[in-house]
Amino acid sequence: MSIEHFIGSHKMTVLLDSGVNRHLRFSDDGGKKTNHWFDLITFDEGLLINSGFGSYSFSKRYVADMFEFFRWRESDSDYVLEKVASKSHDIMAFCEDFAKQYIIDGFECWLDVGDFCDDEKKKMHDEFLDALNEDKFESAQDAIREYQDFTFRGNLIRIDFDDFYPYKPSARYIDCVEAIKWGIGEYDKSKSAA
């Protein structure tokens, strides 16, 4: 469910609007700071979102108005991620699907260098996928512990985890970025209506 579902009825209260210096409050309860409230605060080369679902500050040297930065980078979340200056919660979260795909890739490399006929490779691949799908990982360390060196059909298989990075932006971080974009849109609407 998108963050807009939670904040779509919020009203903007302008506490400060002086050039690149802004303090905008968004809430559906008159600013009492409940129900997914958030504040957007901008200053020269910086933006802070302070909210009930996390606080993150962003900074981009030589970009005076960070609203402009977020307007330019709507689809480039990796670039926006690089501009986080501080955070109240982790930006990245473990992704079990990424971990499993990495392990599958390692297993497929082992199959490719093995001396197996195509039918045998297919059987082994399917059997391995079934076994892997049964596993549940809570962390990257769980995946490494289980699959760095493991035995499959009597064969010792070693997967190299040197570039293993099974993480993606956390839901909390994504919610904050989406709230920023939504809030900028509301601000822009108020300016064009004035």
Question: In a few lines, what is going on in this structure?
Answer:
The protein is α+β, with helices and mostly antiparallel strands.
Please outline the major beta sheet. Answer: 6 strands, antiparallel
Order of helices and strands: HEEEEEHHEEHHHEEEH
Mean pLDDT: 90
Structural class of the helix and strand makeup?
alpha+beta
Distance between the termini: 32 Å
Count of DSSP E strands? 10
What is the helical fraction, as a range of percent?
A: 40-55%
> What percent of residues are in strands?
25-35%
Order of strands across the biggest sheet? Answer: 1-2-3-4-5-6
Give the overall silhouette. elongated
Radius of gyration: 23 Å
Count of separate DSSP helical elements: 7
Can you tell me the residue ranges where pLDDT is under 50 for at least 5 consecutive residues? none
Could you state the oligomeric state of the chains shown? Answer: single chain
